[in-house]
Amino acid sequence: MRNKFYITTPLYYINASPHIGHSYTNIAADTLARYMRGVIGEKKVWFLTGTDEHGQKIQRAAEDAKLTPQQFSDKMVLQFRDLWKKLGISYNDFIRTTEDRHIKIVRKILEILHKKGDIYQDTYQGWYCTPCETFWNQSQISEQLCPDCKRGLERISESNYFFKLSKYQDWLIRYINDHPEFIRPEIRRNEVTSFLRNNKLNDLCISRPKERMSWGIPLPFSPAHVTYVWFDALINYVSAVGEFDAKDKYKSEWWPADLHLIGKDILRQHAIYWPIILKALDIEPPKCIFAHGWWMINESKMSKSRGNVVSPLDMAGKYGIDVYRYFLLRDVPFGLDGNFSEASLVKRFNSDLANDLGNLVYRTLTMIEKYFQSKIPGGGVAIKVGEAKAISDKITSLDEKISLNLSALGGFNFSQALESIWELINMANKYVEQTKPWNLAKENKIDEIKDFILVLVDVINKVDDQIAAFIPQTASSIKEQLGKDEIKKGKPLFPRIQT
Ligand code: MSP
Fold first, then answer.
1. Is the separation of the CB atoms in 183 and 175 below 8 Å?
2. At what angle do helices 386-405 and 446-467 cross, to 10 degrees?
3. Residue ranges in the chain modelled with pLDDT below 50
4. What integer pLDDT is reported at residue 22 of this predicted model?
5. 51 and 190: one domain?
6. Beta strands 207-209 and 183-184: pairing type?
7. Which CATH number covers residue 173?
8. Of 137, 214, 419, 436, which one's alpha carbon is 20 to 30 angstroms from that of 13?
9. Given this model, what pLDDT does residue 266 score?
């Protein structure tokens, strides 16, 4: 299918409640999905999110909660669905790794790769980090601590199944080299490339003996084993949108994914394991994997295990959904880390939302009310000179600018896109101050006021179209207030927060 945009988020572990970090990826994905659907219009969009429900971490959390893993998952998944609903996440599909449609495809893939000889049995000896669900070999660790999370590792020796990652290492290096857009941003691409050049890939252990960990998908060729968490979870991106036929050929109208949006914590799994699994299956790789940065709290990564999580529901409840969305998308260039604090959120609120956008809308509506009895004057702008001309040029160039900002080439730079929109808002606010419409009114220069107001109306309409993907509720509220012919002025959109 041409002209389609298939975008995915990670499947979140459901052992704990979602925090700001999880909501960040989904808000970013939602913004792109809305942008592609709305502004671009002609693209067909498929937006997939979901939950990762198998594995030791979840089995243990369920035990602690005195529930079966399935009961526990059924309960926890509601928190995610509920949060996405509250935040206005417009996903098309929500996949759970415990669903039959997923399990069926994972088993099929295991079978195909086993038959092909890319999955084989061997003894596994090494170190395992349960919270990260990751194996490490001796050379990768020091002091028996997980290199990622710094928690204690367990020594393990057991019979397991392995996937031949190593067989495809050279192919992957070439592939990444030939496809500059495949791993983004550049810094992450370089990270993967240098890792692949400097390390020989170990084959990936993809199973667990059932007696030690039973909460997983049984291997079709060895019922005593279940598959290991990453091998299960990554497959969701294809299991959600397609099927294998009798000849083991994968069929899907959406695949390849146009964008896998992830955090940089799961780059290796997505940029190394996943393309190799697909290559072994003779399925095309995704077009782009983009790894964004982390939200930190006082310079340390937000995570449940560090006990420093901030709840998205609390923030959105306290300041408003759009304010929360706006802050996350605006405050940090996509790809970099950011520090979350309510103080910086309030600062953004007061400057960008209250002073700039809110003020422009409110003062424009007030003038339409006052000078034109709430009717939007018809006829279009008669003369555009000086600042009015500059504003009109800015309006004309905005679409293209934002479409570049929100492309892979532009680094999906939400922050930059918003900055471009705000340049226009600020030009308009300056224009009001320079024009001094109250003086024009005193001199009864009604044609000039009309032209002036129409410039502002054009600005607000353009801004409204462009912010819709980022802050949809605000966009519809502006649309309601600034009707087609008549206005319905409401309260200010963002009353200043006193600090
Ligand atoms: N279940 C795996 C992913 C499987 S994908 C096939 C997993 N889940 S997770 O619940 O730990 O979610 C990880 C993702 O949540 C990150 O990649 C990122 O998208 C988001 N974030 C979690 N913490 C974050 C921050 N502190 N900051 C920004 N995003 C973070 O890994």
1. no
2. 10
3. none
4. 97
5. yes
6. unpaired
7. 3.40.50.620
8. 137
9. 97
Please give the tally of structural domains in the chain: 2
Name the residue among 246, 244, 263 with its Cα closest to residue 255: 244
Specify whether the CB–CB gap between 339 and 301 falls below 8 A: no
Residue 143: predicted pLDDT? 86
E strand or H helix at 210 = none
In a domain, 496, yes or no: no
> Looking at the structure, do residues 16 and 152 belong to the same domain, yes or no?
yes
7, 9, 14, 24: residue to mutate for ligand 1 pocket, most atoms within 8 A of CB? 24
Q: Is residue 63 part of a domain?
A: yes
Torsion of CA 259, 260, 264, 266, to 10 degrees: -160
Q: With both helix axes pointing from N to C terminus, report the angle between 169-178 and 186-198 in degrees, rounded to the nearest 10.
A: 150
Q: Report the CATH number that the domain containing residue 452 is assigned in CATH.
A: 1.10.730.10
Give the residue numbers spanning the domain of 14. Answer: 5-292
For residues 286 and 359, membership in a common domain is answered with: no
Question: Do 122 and 216 have their domain in common?
Answer: yes
Domain assignment present for 156: yes
The answer on 348 and 477 residing in a single domain is yes
- Can you list the pairs that 146-149 forms with residues at least 24 positions away whose Cβ atoms lie under 8 Å? 148/265, 149/305
Based on the domain organization, do 281 and 372 belong to the same domain?
no
Kindly list the protein residues whose Cβ atom lies closer than 6 A to any atom of ligand 1: 10-13, 21-22, 24-25, 52, 233-234, 236, 262-263, 265-266, 294-295, 301-302
Query: pLDDT tens digits for 291-310?
Result: 999 999 888 887 777 788 89
**Contact between 387 and 395 (Cβ < 8 Å):** no
